[in-house]
Specification:
This protein is α+β, with helices and mostly antiparallel strands and about 180 residues long. It contains 5 helices and 6 strands; from the N terminus they run αααααββββββ. A hairpin with a 2-residue loop joins strand 5 and strand 6. It starts with a helix and ends in a 6-residue tail after the last strand.
């Protein structure tokens, strides 16, 4: 498998679900950044009060400092990933072909049927896929606004190693 195909496949997930990704990332980023702060551990507020009142005994000293640091870094990484997903989702909603151009250029063509927001095609290995082509971020390239009615035969281009990353080829659609 091509590493670039795998990267495009991973980036295609938030790109093909732009509307949902904007809301999911938008609401989760603040919580993830808050959890990545040093005072965000569950017992931090109680420990500060005990220290201020002089009630913290030596046996009550903070433990697991390394574990909390690792947890903070994990939340920071997740926050950055969600920020990237937010950017990809916004770009996809505004019509920027984040992954579609690469899939169209390097994808393997096959015929498919479109039923509402669902596209069904069979790969060269004989596996049938039924995947969503969302209304807000349709998997159509190069003409994103091309009208394709439900039930029509269309040409789909998919990445051979990752058939979930596909585009409907609007240059080969029935007119």
């Amino acid at each position: 498998m091509n590493p670039l195909d795998t990267l495009i496949w991973l980036v295609n997930f938030p790109a093909s679900r732009g509307y949902a990704m904007v809301f999911i990332a938008g609401f989760s980023i603040l919580g993830l950044f808050a959890m990545s702060l040093s005072g965000a551990t569950p017992d931090a507020a109680l420990r500060r009060i005990r220290e201020r009142e002089g009630l913290l005994r030596p046996e009550d000293a903070p433990r697991g400092v390394i574990g909390r640091s690792v947890l903070r870094y994990v939340f920071r990484v997740l926050a950055v990933l969600m920020l990237a997903n937010l950017a990809i989702g916004i770009l996809s909603l505004t019509g920027v072909p984040v992954t579609r151009a690469y899939i169209h250029e390097h994808g393997q063509p096959t015929t498919a049927t479109r039923d509402g927001d669902w596209v069904t095609f069979t790969t060269s290995t004989g596996v049938e896929y039924t995947l969503e082509s969302d209304f807000f971020t349709p998997a159509v390239y190069p003409d994103r606004d091309a009208f394709i009615s439900s039930g029509d035969q269309v040409v789909v281009r998919y990445l051979p190693g990752h058939p979930q990353a596909f585009v409907i080829d609007s240059t080969q659609t029935p007119r």
